[in-house]
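FORM 7B: Structural annotation worksheet

SECTION A. Query
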Amino acid sequence: MGKTYERLDDRLRAFIEAQPVFFVASAPLAGDGHVNVSPKGRAGTLAVFDEQTVAYLDFGGSHAETVAHLRENGRITLMWCAFEGPPKIVRVHGVGEPVFRDDPRFDDLVARFGDADAPGLRAVVVVRAKLISDTCGYAVPFMDYREERTLHETFMGRKTDEEFVEYTNNKPYNQESIDGLPAVPLPLPARG
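SECTION B. Predicted structure
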């Protein structure tokens, strides 16, 4: 039976930090808008800041749906599943905010991720928990983690920051979501 929690205690934090992948869900306010679910998993790009706050590094790609939804309404859910060990699912339902490169908080937030900072970083998504819950993961299959997939890091690592800014500026679903909501503020500022 599932439980709800007031805070991310040491046990929940340890579970979250041990998972190699997590999922991010968001949606626009419009009833006919597209719900988005994105997998995240680059090592070191998720941090539990305190008992109510989780954050992750948001790297550039072909879409920015989560960013657009957060800019519109802030609603977000993060989910972690145990693919090994005891069956468990943890969710943090909350309010998220993308902190972009030109925000005065950006550098201090990025520093909290240590070596995970890498080319292609466009924002830090900070999530303040409103509801924390866990449920059984009885239907989640066992899967073995093999290794990090480095294609994104390698692809972005070949670009200068100026080339990354140009790449972002030229992707239509970075400028706005598939539902037409403003996404990444463009032109993307260079990193200081």
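SECTION C. Observations
The first helix runs from residue 10 to 18. The first strand starts at residue 3 and ends at 5.

SECTION D. Sign-off
Analyst initials: ____
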